[in-house]
Design a protein that fits this description.
4-stranded mixed beta sheet, 10% strand, globular
Length: 229
């Protein structure tokens, strides 16, 4: 009886996509939407498995920053208010093009570490994608304080997650190790900016690229994998 060495069929081949991003990164939400459109345009979109990874653009931020996003960016980047305003207008326009309604005037600048811990909890309970979406929307569209633990717990509860368990886990320091491991992995991979997408462990895409870039990359990696396995 001979061993079956046939390559997996196109219909069966799955594609893993690892995405490093920060919930306090405006381009990460835009990139998420563009990636999703790229997946929709990919012939085997149902075969794409997404794994979210934590990243912090500014781990030095306090839990709550006493100032606006414009003031924070001006201080962090050493730019004038007019230049910062133009930057935010540009990002807002780009977000609007993806159906997102950014509200920088009401955005609460906050350290994202606790939110990333909550995301890790959600990932371990089968709701990582939903939690990622909820956190990004809360931060950039709804003006919620994503540095506030109770706000984060309420967001988790709105997704049907166990708020009592999450509250106890956060109090015990849970999920900090996993978040730090993701950040360390990004450093080892040489990732210095997000969003960053790794398709099947071999094809890296940096930034919020157009949807076609993602669709083309998925198609190329998918067909290449089928041919070589």
């Amino acid at each position: 009886m001979s061993e079956n060495t046939a390559a997996p069929s196109l219909e069966d081949k799955r594609i893993r996509v690892d995405i490093f991003s920060d919930i306090a990164c405006p381009w990460c939400f835009i990139g998420k939407r563009r990636f999703e459109r790229g997946v929709e345009a990919f012939e085997y979109s149902q075969n794409v498995d997404v794994y979210w990874h934590s990243y912090q653009l500014d781990p030095s931020l306090p839990e709550n920053y006493d100032g606006s996003e414009a003031e924070y960016l001006s201080e962090m980047k050493g730019l004038g208010q007019e230049q910062v305003s133009q930057m935010l207008d540009h990002v807002t326009d780009q977000a609007a093009g993806e159906g997102l309604d950014y509200d920088f005037a009401n955005l609460k600048v906050a350290n994202s570490f606790t939110a990333l811990r909550v995301l890790e909890y959600a990932k371990q309970h089968g709701a990582g994608g939903e939690m990622k979406e909820s956190l990004l929307s809360a931060h950039f569209e709804k003006g919620l304080d994503t540095g506030d633990e109770e706000t984060l717990i309420q967001l988790a509860g709105s997704l049907g997650l166990d708020t009592a368990e999450l509250r106890a886990d956060l109090a015990s320091g849970a999920y900090a190790e996993e978040v730090n491991a993701d950040i360390a992995q990004a450093r080892e991979l040489g990732i210095s900016g997000v969003p960053f997408f790794i398709i099947d462990g071999k094809y890296g895409i940096s930034g919020a690229q157009p949807a076609e870039v993602f669709a083309n990359a998925l198609t190329q990696v998918h067909s290449g994998n089928v041919q070589t396995r």
